[in-house]
Amino acid sequence: MDKHQLRTKYKEKRKVLKNAELEDLSIEITNQALRSPIWDHATYHLFLPIERQHEIDTSFLLTVLQGKDKEVIISRSDFNNGSMKHFLLTDNTVMKTNSYGIPEPQSGIEIAPAAIEVVFVPLLAYDRFGNRVGYGKGFYDRFLKECNPDTLKIGLSFFPPEDKINDVNQDDIALDMCITPEGVYDFRN
């Protein structure tokens, strides 16, 4: 399938999930993450969910990160130029939900992408090779290009991978891993 078909398919698959299912699946993803060998880093970038898109509730993962004393980085998107700025999440971080439903920091200590060691990447779909489909604006592909080559890129998904995304292009940045409620896919091997 191509990206357009996959976006449509997975938006529909997520739309039918009830709130209790979303919560249970999000907790299972967090439990799978806890069992994964990803915790020997200091700085973790985490996306905050767009609730109306039935995205994974990353608040459980945020609690784990904070409990492990990790530095948590969150982003603010600029829809005029397609860029993201990244900020250290602190007790003083003022959050506001933008018009797209994305909770974002309003200000704070800005962190360069090169300083981020692990990025949890939002997605709609992904394939057995680690290629992902997002919402189509390219924010994360541009951001991941600014990270170090050894930054660990981890997708989070309610669903298993597709066999193949047919229209992957040279600007797409593949995942290293994807965590689902059932287990972890490692694409580095």
Automatic annotation (TrEMBL):
GO terms for molecular function: 5-formyltetrahydrofolate cyclo-ligase activity; ATP binding; metal ion binding. ATP binds at K3, H4, Q5, L6, R7, R132, V133, G134, Y135, G136, K137, G138, F139, Y140. Keywords: ATP-binding, Ligase, Magnesium, Metal-binding, Nucleotide-binding. Its cofactor is Mg(2+). GO terms for biological process: folic acid-containing compound biosynthetic process; tetrahydrofolate interconversion. SUPFAM superfamilies: NagB/RpiA/CoA transferase-like (SSF100950). It comes from the Bacteria. It catalyses: (6S)-5-formyl-5,6,7,8-tetrahydrofolate + ATP = (6R)-5,10-methenyltetrahydrofolate + ADP + phosphate. Belongs to the 5-formyltetrahydrofolate cyclo-ligase family. This is 5-formyltetrahydrofolate cyclo-ligase.
